[in-house]
């Protein structure tokens, strides 16, 4: 290659670099503008939220007045409806802006200066999908590794499994905190469940090998395999439910699958509920078994026994109570519950008035005797 050709090629590269510089300068300028606009939008939303809060307080004070006319009451009701619509729009606007606070947990782990907000809905949905894939892959890995460890009882394999489970649950808590910052409504017991679950394999990992550990080991392995298989089936089922809810516009885009039973699962079959409850009862049995071992000589001096007994008991009780409340709350919205309540009220009213409308047409003496006879028959039954 001649010197002239080298010079011409360098000129071409220089021109291309100048184009890159222009694009980069434009990018930096737009980023600064976007950051400035974001700051202004957050300030404006914060100020508007303050005004709305004061306005709602004013509405409450006005409604408490007793000298309001019907026309004024109707005007206030109309304004309240408009306020609700405005609040929905305000929440949508806030969802498009970076969160101002990552929360205590993320600030403790990542630092308070790192912004974990994802700016677009597509980025948030991709992160949520990656979270679901992560849970699916690691749960399969835990199932396979637990099966291998059960068949070949080496403490090294047990330690690797416990390390994997500790890392998995710790990672879940971080990812779920990021999802919460980006609009996912992860709350209640199932978030606490992951924090507590981090400690369980950690305690098993530090448990000294011996007769007590060897007796607990197969039970723990069976529990992990069972609950992992149920979670895999549940993940597939819940993913299908969420896709259907998203398609019908009845579910939030950032809703995720959880280890427990949630109300939106009633949109389809509830065949997984018995398997879930069986897993929770299995966990409760493990807790009671460990409590029984505390005073035995083989487990003497092992703090892991009573600590695991307490922790497994708390987790199992929380799972059972939360799932039961969800089922009961959802059952109260079903037509069957409404029908049962209607029949109960109808029977109670008839019983209270001594047989209903037919009894009202009887003479007073006969009605009294009839009511007494009915009560006696019911008592005999």
UniProtKB/TrEMBL annotation:
Transmembrane segments: 134-152, 158-174, 271-294, 306-328
Keywords: Membrane, Transmembrane, Transmembrane helix
Superkingdom field: Eukaryota
Protein location: Membrane
UniProt membrane topology term: Multi-pass membrane protein
Pfam hit, one: TMEM120A-B
Gene Ontology CC annotation, any one: membrane
InterPro entries: TMEM120A/B
Matching PANTHER family: TRANSMEMBRANE PROTEIN 120 HOMOLOG (PTHR21433:SF0), TRANSMEMBRANE PROTEIN INDUCED BY TUMOR NECROSIS FACTOR ALPHA (PTHR21433)
Family: Belongs to the TMEM120 family.
Protein name, UniProt field: Transmembrane protein 120 homolog
Species in which this protein is naturally found: Caenorhabditis angaria
